[in-house]
Amino acid sequence: MPMDRDMRQQLKIVMVPILKAFILLILLSLSVFAQGADPGFQTRIAQGSKFVQRFSGTGPLPADDGSDDGNAPIDGSRKILKAEHKGHKGATTADASQPTNGGPLIGPDGNPITTPEKPRFETNCLGTWRITTPNVGVAAMQLQTMPNDKVVWFDTTFLGPSALQWNPPGKNCPINFETNVPDCYVHAIEYDGLHDTTRPLTLKSDPWCSVGSLSATGTLVGSGGYYKGRNAIRLLKSCPNCDFTEKSFVLGNDRWYASQHILDDGNLVVVGGRKSFTYEIIPPDTLNIPIKKFDFPFLQQTTDPVENNLYPFLYLVPDGNLFLFANNRSIIFDHKSAKIIRELPPLPGGSRNYPASGMSAVLPIKIDPKAPEKVYFDIMVCGGASPYAFYPVDSVQARPKPKNVYWPALQDCNKIKLMDPNPHWEKDMLLSPRVMGDMLILPSGDLLILNGAKKGAAGWWNGDDPNMTPELYMPKQKLGNRFKKLAPTHIPRMYHSTSAVLSSGEVLVAGSNENDRYVFQGVPFPTEMRVEKFSPPYLDKNLDKYRPKILTPPKKVKYGGHFSFKYAITTPPPQPLDATDLKMHLLSPPFTTHGYSQQQRMLVLDVILRGPDTVQAVAPPNPKIAPPGYYILFLVHRGVPSAGIWVRLVTQ
Ligand SMILES: *[C@@H]1O[C@H](CO)[C@@H](O)[C@H](O)[C@H]1NC(C)=O
User: Fold this and answer.
1) Cα(348) to centroid of ligand 1, in Å?
2) Domain Glyoxal oxidase N-terminal spans what residues (predicted)?
């Protein structure tokens, strides 16, 4: 029976105050309970409301032109952010260990954590693979991502036809610089990393096992190689119709299997190469190279009967000196005087450079705005092979080779904290052995370990048992929990394979040639023409709702200056974000060949919130910590990165 209308009204009059009182009582007891359980509860509620209040205010932003040196007096909003950090100090985080009495929180990696962060958003996704181009035509021996997301790669010009003819076929056959006969095949391409189209490029001198890096203007400067390319310079600008310009016989020494890195002043240093126990400094963006060469006996001391110190690992360290790892020894040296400043402890276990080709990367470099010059610089050296692995496999002429000549690759993965007073190697283990792998810094700040073999060494026909399962290295996890197996590919990628992180957050994977020519039949590992893209776990669709988007990308960023941009999150969260929920990651695009991504680094910047839709950060303080040039900027929300945008870090 329906209730009488008047009766309902009467009930309402009686019940509403009772209900109100009841709800109040529940709320009160809840708050008392919560206070008892978490003394920070009330403070956080209060701060939360202040936080919201601040958003409605419209205080002026510090200038974004770099005029602010980052030491400006702390304004009201920053004070509130500081108070919030204090409020969260006792909160547990995924990464932090127990806070010491009054001292800074120490992370599991031994570095202090200044701003405790909330855990990352979780995903069960292990990544996905897809083939984007079935037959790209040119083997990706060495590869550079350009500041327009075009990925340039090339192979040797010397060893016969590629799988891509100049179009129209037979009509465009430039004389091969080396052999003096017409060559109708393409040996270098520009691959559009976002749209998967290709454009052929012209190479004259042979870039076989050469080196390269991006200069401060975004020009690819390729050095060395073989034959008439062995001391050549090749320049490629990033513009829609640009092609290589090159000049042979300009370097001070032959640079075959050398390493290269940009310096803080924008010059480039080229180190080593087969039988070249020297390094030289070259100016960028020019084919006129004044010889500025230094003898460097360390390169001679670290070579052995099969060399094992080629493509040495080279980094510009934050004091402006260089770190060099060759075979199993490493040093810090002053490139202005060729003086070794210190030798670090040797790394036992085997050899790490070509042909024992291990992997190396520097972990993301966290910039503390309060002490911007003081950064941690932790270098990883992982995998590789026994110093004796190359000879048995390389000396066998039989095809296919007997299985017993392939020695197991190394599985250890080691870290050295360069800024420690007494740096030493801390040993961890990969989940599987790997030689000729790649180690890329992902937009999330984790490392991706992929490609390579479980057995053998670098060199044609020298790899076996391809390692098709990538691993994620999570530097902030506790020792023992840092590695995770990701979804495997089914395409072997061993010798002369490469990979690159794109601004979309995807990873392009290309190349692999265990043969000295383009061979597609009758061999265990045919020349690989398929291009793949790997979507790391952070691209999981289920995380899209958390994904930030950069709305007003800055183009240039000045050292030490404030810069800001507007952003949005796909599904705006119900609560306003904490500043610690967001980070800016600046990733320099490396030149990747032979398992080593040269000139790769990531800078991690704290974020200041400026209203509900604007984030601000202080740019890296100087070009020693972050060499000048192009970086991909990602806004990262608790481990979920935005698509990246290209920014140029400049002095002026
Ligand atoms: C470093 O390599 C050299 C040459 O292979 C070897 O003689 C030496 O014992 C190695 N050092 C360590 C610590 O493994």
Assistant:
1) 7
2) 141-538
Q: Which pTM does this prediction carry?
A: 0.84
CA of 328 to the centre of ligand 1 (A): 6
Ligand 1 centre to CA of 107 (Å) is 33
Tens digits of residue pLDDT in 348-395 = 999 999 999 999 999 999 998 888 888 999 999 999 999 999 999 999
Any ligand 1 atom below 6 A from CB of 304: yes
Residue 69's pLDDT band, with cuts at 50, 70 and 90, is very low
pLDDT band at 168 (very low <50, low <70, confident <90, very high): confident
- Asked if residue 350 has its Cβ within 6 Å of ligand 1, the reply is no
The dihedral formed by the CA atoms of 458, 462, 465 and 468, expressed in degrees to the nearest 10: 40
The two tokens of residue 491 are 């395409």
Give the pLDDT mean for 420-424: 95
* Nearest ligand 1 atom to alpha carbon 349: 14
CA distances from 605 to 550, 586, 618, 626, 635 (A): 15, 8, 7, 12, 10
Q: Model confidence at 535, in pLDDT bands (50, 70, 90)?
A: very high
Q: What are the strands of the beta sheet with 378-382, ordered from one edge?
A: 359-362, 378-382, 412-417, 425-429
Cβ-Cβ contacts under 8 Å for 117 (sequence gap 6 or more): 93, 94, 95, 580, 581, 638
The confidence score (pLDDT) of residue 566 equals 98
Name the residue with the closest Cα to ligand 1, atom 3: 328
Instruction: Read off the pLDDT of each residue in 631-642 and give the average, rounded to a whole number.
Output: 98
26 burial via Cβ count (<10 Å: 0-12, 13-18, 19+): exposed
More confident residue, 5 or 277: 277
Distance 253 CA to ligand 1 centre (A): 27
Atom of ligand 1 nearest to the CA of 348: 14
- Is residue 348 within 6 Å of ligand 1 at its C-beta? yes
- Beta strand 556-558 with 645-650 is parallel
User: Which residue's CA is the nearest one to ligand 1's atom 9?
Assistant: 348
Distance (Å, whole) CA 109 – CA 125? 25
The stretch 416-432 carries a mean pLDDT of: 97
Within 13 Å, how many C-alpha atoms sit on residue 252's CB side? Answer: 19
Nearest CA to ligand 1 atom 5: 387
Question: Average pLDDT, stretch 268-283?
Answer: 98
